[in-house]
Design goal:
This protein has a single domain, classed as Chorismate mutase (Chorismate Mutase Domain, subunit A). The chain contains four helices and no strands.
Length: 105
């Protein structure tokens, strides 16, 4: 038996502190997924409205304001503003892709 397989054969006792942290992380991850789902339901309605009214799929001015607003919120929350910008840009890009699809583009 190798040292690695011997290690795998005898699992360590569960760490209750780590288990508690992981449970909280799992709950937060679930909440994030539900919040993103709700956000995309709303942005889908926005995309359909834009398609019907002939509005462009993206609004660069609003996007820039949202990014700046969320960067400021990140600083207040002691979260890396670069990370928050990357995250919201990813979300915005996905929303724009959906809006273009709603417009048949």
């Amino acid at each position: 038996m190798t040292q690695q397989s011997a290690f795998q054969a005898t699992p360590a006792a569960p760490d209750p502190v780590l288990a508690g942290y992981r449970k909280s992380i799992d709950n937060i991850d679930a909440a994030l997924v539900h919040m993103l789902a709700e956000r995309f339901r709303i942005t889908q309605a926005v995309g359909e409205h834009k398609a019907v009214t002939g509005m462009p799929a993206s609004d660069p001015g609003r996007e820039a304001r949202q990014i700046e607003r969320l960067r400021a919120l990140a600083v207040e929350a002691e979260l890396d503003p670069e990370f928050s910008e990357k995250f919201i840009r990813f979300v915005i890009d996905e929303v724009i892709r959906h809006h273009k699809r709603a417009q048949g583009k």
